[in-house]
Amino acid sequence: MNKDEKTRRIAVVGFGPRGLGALEALADCMADRDLALAVDMYDANAARGAGPNFDPDETPLCLLNIPNRDINIRPPGFSKLGGFTDWSGPDCDPDAFPPRAELGRYLRARSADLLGRDSPEITPVAGEVERITRDGSRWRIETAQGTSAVYDEVLLTLGQPPVSPDDQLAEWRDHAARTTARLAGAYPAKTLIGEAANWTGHTVAIRGIALSFFDVLRALTAAQNGSFEDGCYTPSGQEPARILPFSLDGKPPFPKPATEEIDAWFDPVDAETTAFETAMATASQSDPDTARHLITTALTPVASRILKTQGADPTGVSDWLDTEWSDPGSQETGDTFETLRHGIALAEGTAPLTIGYTLGQIWRKWQNQVRAGYNPATTPPDTAKIIVGFDEGMKRYSYGPPVSAAREMLAVIDAGLIDLDFAAGPDIDLTDEGWTLTSGAGTAEVSVMIDAVLPPPDPASVTAPLIRDLMDRGMLATIDEGLSANTAADGGLIDADGQDQPGLCLLGRLALGSVIAVDSLHDCFGEASRRWACGVCDRLSG
Ligand SMILES: Cc1cc2nc3c(=O)[nH]c(=O)nc-3n(C[C@H](O)[C@H](O)[C@H](O)COP(=O)(O)OP(=O)(O)OC[C@H]3O[C@@H](n4cnc5c(N)ncnc54)[C@H](O)[C@@H]3O)c2cc1C
Fold first, then answer.
1. What separation in Å is there between the alpha carbon of 473 and the centre of ligand 1?
2. Which atom of ligand 1 lies closest to the CA of 19?
3. Same domain for 150 and 36
4. Which helix (H) or strand (E) holds 437?
5. How far does the centroid of ligand 1 lie from the alpha carbon of residue 443, in Å?
6. Which of 163, 322, 422, 464 could make an SS bond with 437 (beta carbons 3.0 to 4.6 A apart)?
7. Backbone angles phi, psi at 373, to 5 degrees
8. Can you tell me which atom of ligand 1 is nearest the CA of 467?
9. Same domain (yes/no): 508, 531
10. Are residues 12 and 139 both part of a single domain?
């Protein structure tokens, strides 16, 4: 057999961080095997390895939600590049949260490193994949650009493809198309910054007070030449006159601990982590009540110990968890301003620890253990729903912003630009010029609405032709209502009849429920990618 006949062909669709992580794992796994692989990386986006969320050309005002000291995505052994902080240089502040664009430049460098290797042979293909069909025992890929090619293996790492808007957003889009009302998206932030230059003196509402909100706030303030210094905001005069953030409950997320020293308060000890690993693995294969009980039982003594050590009341952890399972977020009763101030004080270590904040930090530190227990298991759908729901709810703590972002919000409130009167679930009516927001505090007329809500990863609402087609033909099926695609432990897509489709795999957000804790850079370079890579090597070596 000559080299070309021996070479097996792989397509990876989506060259964001997860496509990069998968390919690095593949290069690593195939190193000690007699395998010749040629990989085509399909993506219309030019930011190789970075994807849209870490686009190197994006504004530096969009920050990563992980401090330098916690970024743990070292390249495989064959790479000479080193980790992100080595690459950033000696001035890298361990407590700082880097711009996502900076991280994107690092991921781009890692991609270039990989593309320079002889094995596997990698070819980037600038194209959008629209259709995947069986071709004998292989897979045919067709693109919107009219190309067609056949592969032994296909991996989909699509991130969050576009979805149809929720009812509220659909109504607003229609409204904005018919009137002078202006509806904008949060990203690309560079585009928003350009648009916001025209909103001086306007009243601008922002839907969503989660992580994207902080990017949007900087686009409306610092990017309009205002400045943050010593906890104060000095306006430039080019900002909107009034900024009205709102969400269903009006609560901002809790910032991460401000320093390494405070962060270390929440470190579980090894024995606690081992017990949690066992509990998580068993919970993932149990009925919902057992799963709840096992996870609660593993978390409770750890939180109690930490609360006690830090001089806070250690009682009531298990009751808190009981309520959190059924009614996430309901135990924090403060309004937007109180929650923001309290979150900053907790992150700075100046307020007595709360049960929620403590559990949230432990949960963050155990994200890898959560994945290790959950991802390889075949979790019963009802159990998957409650565990995924718990993880999503705890994100208000575990995926918190930098404390600097929370302080900036406070500074803009103090400067009189943010008005919180409408923050918690206002009534919203359409007007000829925009929207009217109504709350107990009165009404506000708004001419610009910014959507800062990330849609849920429901494949059924995705509008991209590739996913629509795979769903229509039963090749991609959801696990159950509220959960995403059904995949095996190595990412193999399971069809609507429950059958494996060897060689067709999917990793990432669109498989939420089959896997957990996907919205993190760390997951893109974790064990899920390695399991896929080993599966490919095993199948193609056979
Ligand atoms: C605004 C935002 C901020 C975030 N910030 C953080 C953060 O600070 N820290 C963190 O850990 N995580 C963050 N995340 C989570 C983030 O999604 C992941 O860390 C990471 O970006 C996921 O990478 P991915 O490769 O799965 O998806 P993406 O980066 O979205 O890449 C998917 C790629 O697939 C391509 N693609 C899709 N469909 C097709 C097709 N049909 N044909 C060809 N190509 C296709 C797209 O063009 C894209 O380049 C953030 C997410 C968002 C949305």
1. 25
2. 25
3. yes
4. strand 435-439
5. 37
6. 422
7. -80, -40
8. 41
9. yes
10. yes
Tell whether 463 is covered by a domain. no
Going from the Cα of 519 to the center of ligand 1, the distance in angstroms, rounded, reads 9
C-alpha distance from residue 469 to each of 154, 234, 327, 475 (Å): 16, 51, 36, 9
Same domain for 42 and 26, yes or no, is yes
Is 13 close to ligand 1, i.e. is its CB under 6 Å away? yes
Residue 523 lies in a domain: yes
Q: pLDDT 10s per residue in the chain (542 long)? A: 566 668 999 999 999 999 999 999 999 999 989 999 999 999 999 999 999 999 999 999 999 999 999 999 999 988 889 999 999 999 999 999 999 999 999 999 999 999 999 889 999 999 999 999 999 999 999 999 999 999 999 999 999 999 999 999 999 999 999 999 999 999 999 999 999 999 999 999 999 999 999 999 999 999 999 999 999 999 999 999 999 999 999 999 999 999 999 999 999 999 999 999 999 999 999 999 999 999 999 999 999 999 999 999 999 999 999 999 999 999 999 999 999 999 999 999 999 999 999 999 999 999 999 999 999 999 999 999 999 999 999 999 999 999 999 999 999 999 999 999 999 999 999 999 999 999 999 999 999 999 999 999 999 999 999 999 999 999 999 999 999 999 999 999 999 999 999 999 999 999 999 999 999 999 999 999 999 999 999 999 87
Residue 14 alpha carbon to ligand 1 centre in Å: 9
CA atoms of 382 and 483, how far apart (whole Å): 10
Clarify whether residues 364 and 432 are in a common domain. no
For 197, the domain range is: 167-253+402-451
Q: By the 8 A CB rule, do 134 and 141 touch?
A: no
Map tokens 């690459």 to a residue. 87
Protein residue with its CA nearest to atom 41 in ligand 1:
129
